[in-house]
Specification:
Length: 204
């Protein structure tokens, strides 16, 4: 019985997140009420509040879902990266970028960035920053792996180069979500051009 209850709880949780993501994308984060999310998920409003105190908590949960999926995919790339430093970095960063609009719209990303900036010490802000830090660490791990394969200079500072690549990606991603007309292929082309220069400087 305990296992069944856990499965039912997980299923309700998934339905709530799916409903929230769909409604936020369709109508905009600000316009959606918690009652509408409950109705779409076919749960009571009280059930939602058992999991989340407000819409911000729901939004950061969707961001967390997004990031954890790309982190998992990134682990596969690091375990067996392409035999080219540029292709390996492009595969990892490309996974981050290509998956970014799977659950969230640009408007949702803007809301998440605004909340994390305005409330950095809140649970939302701390969770958001923690997710960013996890992506940065994974980028550093890829650089270290490429060094171990002699695809990059083994004497280079893996952490600093990984952080530079991730921070550059983050800056360009913020510009991407701020610019409605900008496409993912345009973002990836910009990142490839800029990362080419960074990687050339640390090739063996």
């Amino acid at each position: 019985m305990s296992g069944l209850r856990q499965k039912q709880k997980a299923h309700r949780h998934d339905r709530i997140l799916e409903a929230a993501a769909e409604l936020f994308r369709e109508f905009g984060y600000e316009a959606v009420k918690m009652e509408a999310i409950a109705a779409a998920a076919e749960v009571s409003i009280g059930t939602i509040y058992n999991y989340y105190q407000n819409k911000g908590d729901l939004l950061v949960a969707i961001v967390s879902l997004e990031v954890h999926e790309v982190l998992k995919a990134g682990e596969d790339i690091i375990s067996k990266p392409p035999r080219s430093a540029e292709r390996a970095v492009d595969a990892l960063i490309g996974g981050y970028v290509e998956h970014s609009l799977h659950y969230l719209s640009k408007e949702m990303w803007r809301q998440a960035l605004a909340i994390s900036t305005q409330q950095p010490d809140s649970p939302f802000g701390e969770t958001f920053m923690g997710l960013d830090a996890a992506l940065a660490r994974q980028t550093c791990s890829l650089i270290a792996k490429l060094q171990s394969l002699n695809l990059l200079d083994p004497d280079a500072d893996a952490r600093s180069h990984g952080e530079i690549i991730f921070n550059n990606t983050n800056m360009n991603f913020i510009n991407f979500v701020k610019t409605e007309s900008m496409t993912i292929p345009e973002l990836r082309a910009t990142l490839r051009r800029q990362h080419h220069v960074l990687i050339q400087g640390v090739k063996p």
